[in-house]
Amino acid sequence: MCYDTPMTILNAQEDMVLKPLLYTIVPEEALKSMAVTFHACIKLPIQIINEQGGILVSEGETPKFCKLFQKHLPSRYTCEQMHISASKKAISLGEPYVFACYADLNHIVYPLISKQTFLGSILVGPFLMDDADSTLISNIAMKYPMTTDDALELYDETSSLPVVAPAIVNHISHLLFYLFSNVVTDSKKELWQNNQKLLQQSRINESIQRYKAENISENTYPYEKEKILLNKVKLGDVKEANAVLNDLLGYVLFSQGNSLDVVKARALELCSLLSRTAIEGGAPTDSILKLNNQFLQNLQQIDNLDTLCHKLQEIVETFSESMFNYIPSKNSEIIKKSMLYISEHFNRPLTLEEVADYVHLHSSYFSTLFKHSTGSSFKEYLNMVRIEESKRLLTNTDFSIVDVAVAVGFEDQSYFSKVFKKYTGLTPKQFR
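The structure corresponding to this sequence follows.
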């Protein structure tokens, strides 16, 4: 039997301590191979740095310009600091970040993160995006005093700096993402989420500024927009639903300030409304109720506004998509198209033949397909849509029962009342 000696154990422990955090997630050889390949194709210097900014892998020579410049850089400034600061900015943006260093040379940084832990970055550069001139050196000399000879020596070295057109820089940023986004499994997802949060906050801020400019009352919650949101969810229109959601969130933040508790209370109410809307639209009750419970628990645990708003957007998307998840995939687009058409034209005489013609199917085949896919006949589904709209009108308007019946597509009040009671257990008058 063979036993490890104390020295062997000590060496193993030292290796564990000295091994960079990034290499505990990604093999060193894999990262080095990717850096070699990138440099061979793009011809720009590339470095892989650790979480402190230290260089782990370097491919391509550091320009002499940088070595000369660093002699004049005050000790309180370091390239490592700059690279880590740029990495953090890239994390908040959720994408590769192009930045200028202390010497006004350009770099691209792509951060690597796992479970919200910063592991290091991929750093490409330095390079210029336009031919160097005396302005570059004069700006540097103003910030970091140097002799005329030193400035001239720097200027002589600018000719060796690579020049990359801005459009190509954009492509290189995309290439970095494509090449390294799957190196750390969690990194791509976390950066994407950060990017989506940033975009959402931009939309919400636009809404806040609009409410301020229009002098909208802070005491009148826009329930009409909330109804529009629910309708968009019922239609499965994710893009428009998100737009209305961000507008609503903008109003809440505009009227209540950055109060996490207020926004959370509104988010909990909205989550419950969305789940009921999905169920009323035909989504499976058991699945939706489970989703709703999970979302309500998640919302309660969130402790910052950006994450709360993003989670609410995820909830809207999930409920919107759930409206059609139960439809067999082979025919989902046809059925979705027909359901959208019904939602847009239910308030006038609408026939099975008209909708079948719209989706280019024979009426008898469409009838069978619709019933198989939704669990309801065409007429049953049309009546459900009409009754849902009538409930809204009965609650929020002073229309007479006759006017409501006509507004949602029923030509006969008595038939409307009969159908209404079938679906709600109440007459229209009792419901009101």
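The chain is about 65% helix and 10% strand.
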